[in-house]
Amino acid sequence: MHGNKELGVLLSNGYDPAVADGIRALEKHLDDHPALAEELDAVVTAFADKQEITMGEALGRVKRIAEKYGENEYCLDLLLVINGLPYMHKRFAENGYPDSVFYETMDDIRCKVNECVECKGVVGTFVAEWYDRFFVPSCFGLGRFQYERAEYGGDDFTLGCGRTVHRGDTYINMHIPSRGIPLTDGVRLASYRAAYPYFKKYFDDGVVIFGCHSWLLFPKHLQFLPTHLNIRKFIGDFELVGCEETEKFNDIWRVFGRYANLPYEELPRDTALRRAYAEWLCAGNKTGYGFGLFAFDGEKIVR
Fold first, then answer.
1. Can you give the chain as a three-state secondary structure string?
2. CATH for 181
3. Which of 7, 55, 278, 285 is 20 to 30 A from residue 99's alpha carbon, by CA?
4. pTM surpassing 0.85?
5. Would the pLDDT of 1 be above 50?
């Protein structure tokens, strides 16, 4: 099971060499410890292959294995995901998604491992439960963003183009993996266009409703982020449905990484985003989230 071809393809495409070597070292660690490998492989088989257990149950078993053998849970969680790659690949193909979509989606592993290295100091993942949607699969990387069908749960909302979205209606929910690719106008539009053919079938008039709930859509970003930042342009794609402020900046690690737990006055200011956020937080301001929608006709956002 170890050393699967899917992992080899991924590691040859964009991984930091040290991170790639770290993942190979984890695989070798399994080869060198057959008892550990046998127990972990049993979880992979039960979850990823036979689908006899849920992701939650699989991660619970992995946690117990980590405790039994004195292993890092984040590392074993990553091994669960990467040794499930052949099964994910098979299901993508069975659902009509080409290899290009599979591998673009699986670049998410690189993103999550980089976040774990930055925030936890180990090659692993601290959000393995996220991958449940890829094993189904119900979530797909198409260009810069990831997309999945969702059900709108808010009050009726009428977009500028005249389309009203009702409670219970389908919309296409977006996620923004930390791929290190700037959210420029061209990159965003290319992703919407790439996603459109896969999701237009869910909308009778061929106009796809995209939506996103994210800290990136916090509307007060327009008050304190520099005008040149692409986050502001990303916000501009959406019509704001709702927002919320929080007492605690729960996504502070996404901005400051390993420094997230420092006092606000000690936060690094080495980028425009970090500088703006550090000053905003030091001034006692709150942060939060926004939820927005937009209509897309295959070529452009419809207003």
1. CCCCHHHHHHHCCCCCHHHHHHHHHHHHHHHHCHHHHHHHHHHHHHHHHCCCCCHHHHHHHHHHHHHHHCCCHHHHHHHHHHCCHHHHHHHHHHCCCCHHHHHHHHHHHHHHHHHHHHHHCCCCCCCHHHHHHHHCCCCEEECCEEEEEEECCCCCEECCCCCEECCCCEEEEEECCCCCCCCCHHHHHHHHHHHHHHHHHHCCCCCEEEEEEEHHHCCCHHHHCCCCCHHHHHHHCCEEEEEEEECCCCCHHHHHHHHCCCCHHHCCCCCHHHHHHHHHHHCCCCEEEEEEEEEECCCCEEC
2. 3.40.630.120
3. 55
4. yes
5. no
> Are 232 and 83 members of one domain?
no
- Whether 194 shows a pLDDT value over 90: the answer reads yes
The predicted-structure confidence for 96-123, as pLDDT tens digits, reads as follows: 999 999 999 999 999 999 999 999 999 9
Residue 155 has pLDDT above 90, yes or no: yes
Give the pLDDT mean for 280-287: 97
Co-location of 16 and 126 in the same domain:
yes
Are residues 148 and 297 both part of a single domain?
Answer: yes
pLDDT, mean of residues 60-74: 98
Count of domains forming the chain:
2
Q: Are 67 and 109 in contact (CB under 8 A)?
A: no
Whether residues 96 and 37 share a domain: the answer is: yes
Query: CA gyration radius for the chain?
Result: 21
User: Same domain for 58 and 170?
Assistant: no
Task: Please give the residue range of the domain that contains residue 167.
Answer: 141-247+286-302
Please say if the pLDDT value at position 251 is more than 50: yes
Q: Which of 135, 158, 188 is the last residue of a domain?
A: 135
- Give CA–CA dist 103/13, Å, rounded: 10
pLDDT at 2 (0 to 100) = 54
- Those residues whose C-beta lies under 8 Å from the C-beta of residue 107, and which sit 6 or more positions away, are 10, 13, 14, 141, 177, 179
